[in-house]
Every structure is written in structure tokens, then in C-alpha cells.
Fold:
Amino acid sequence: LRHVLVANAARETDVLALLPTALLFCASTANSASLYDGVVRDGVHYRLVEANRRAIFIGRPKLAHAARSRTQAYFFYPRNVSKCGNPHRCEEFCRIYASVFDGKEDPWMNPFYKISWKAVQSTCCYHCASSWEAQHHQECEIVWQEFPTYFDLPPWTTLLEHLKDSREQLPSNATSIPGT
Structure:
């Protein structure tokens, strides 16, 4: 629920640099129905403002696609790693991992999901796990730079420039605490 509040406050106060991460957390912590309808907790209805709901429904499929095709592609489209020590075991691991997501009604996947590489290494051969880990980190960095645009927002550089410009327009005493 905090993510909904942060995303809505960022949108309404024009602090757009917070939106990509807040929207990512919203997309990661709820299913499609609750993202659209909102949730009721302790008698209070929490719902994303319309612009944020639109951004989530534009960005969520793009993030899931980035996970499947880039940051976690090795599980869905395993390629032979030239030094694979156990092709059957590694391919079976990938098949089982992919089947967990393929059977879900809501095919959401977080491209920045923190994978336990020690667990992967204990199941797959060292060479495959090491290759996949390197690919994962490389692709995560690239997707991170792109992902504000998945939510129909400007790139990070523009968002941060907008934030800097907004701060420069504040009166000089706007950041001080009254009475100090």
C-alpha cells in the first residue's frame, strides 16, 4: 500500500523521478485486478490514480517481457553453454523454472528479481550458472536504464534533470525546518 501512496504522491506533486521505482513496486506486489480496482485495508480504499493505473498497464507487460527475453532469458530460452558440465540437468532446471511461470494466470515477472545464484549453482553446473549470472547482471543494468520508458515516462536523465530544475525553483528557505 505504501507503494500506491508514494506513486500517487509523486504523480500529484510532479516528483516524477520517484515514479518508475514506485510503479515497479506496485507492479511487483499486486495482481492485475487489485492494481486496477485497488484494495481496501482497515476500511480505507487504496487505488492508483488514473495516470498511474495507465502507466502500470502499459509498463507491466513490457517489464515481464524484459524478464523473459533479457534478464532471465537463459531459463526460458536455454542456449548450450560451451563448457556445460551436465546439459541434461541444466536443461531440466530451465524447463522446471520456466514451467512455474508459464502456468500462471497472471504472467507477471520482475526483471530485477534477485536470483539466488548459490541455489542455481547447487542445481545446475558451475559454467551455466556463472554464465547466466553474468548475463543477468549485464541485462539488469541495461533494462534499468530503459525501464522508465516502459511506463510511458521520460528516460532517467530527463527525470533527474526535471527533479533538479524543480529543486532550483524552490525558495532558498523551502528546505529549512521552521524554527531552526
The chain has nine helices and two strands. The mean pLDDT is 87. The first helix runs from residue 2 to 12. The radius of gyration is 20 Å.
